[in-house]
Amino acid sequence: xxxxxxxxxxxxxxxxxxxxxxxxxxxxxxxxxxxxxxxxxxxxxxxxxxxxxxxxxxxxxxxxxxxxxxxxxxxxxxxxxxxxxxxxxxxxxxxxxxxxxxxxxxxxxxxxxxxxxxxxxxxxxxxxxxxxxxxxxxxxxxxxxxxxxxxxxxxxxxxxxxxxxxxxxxxxxxxxxxxxxxxxxxxxxxxxxxxxxxxxxxxxxxxxxxxxxxxxxxxxxxxxxxxxxxxxxxxxxxxxxxxxxxxxxxxxxxxxxxxxxxxx
Length: 264
Known about the structure:
globular; five-stranded mixed sheet; 7 helices; two-stranded antiparallel ribbon; alpha+beta
């Protein structure tokens, strides 16, 4: 926003106000209301749809010819799978729209990371590598919300790696790193992937709702991360990882205040 005023003589005053954060906050609030309404409207019919399909399969199984039975089974499976996909979508809407205020208490971030990463062992083709600084102090955070941040970032990173063209010589990994920054008395949590990185237009709006590079994504994962970061007074950054001028992946980082820093 540019504002101006005439000063005595021939002087002029021109003031530029950067309202990017205000516009972003207003947009996020509006999308939150949209998400709340969509979650409510979509959720109600999903259970009866699934139950009706399963009841049809139960009633008709054994009463149809082999070919018709195969069509029935395939159709019911399609309905149930799509209903589950819609339920996941509704849950993402709900999480974004109803994210509660953070309750900040001292949290050992390294321990929290270990707890979350255990859930990913043997469950993905993309391994998670830990690079945790052992002398990180406790951070002030909401453990449940920070768990959600780690889950969202790991899922995004693994999806980015899995979307890369298959190359037997390429190592597809995700690195989860913690670093103690003594100068700012903050702990930095970073997730690095070996995917294709982000287009420039996405980098500028990555934390806005419904901005995504995934063909089937909602774009709410990083938006939830940003909301949680704001609740924690944390700075969140996103950038592409470069090597010899080429994009070799992406990195998302949060800088969290320590217990000592918060008390000071």
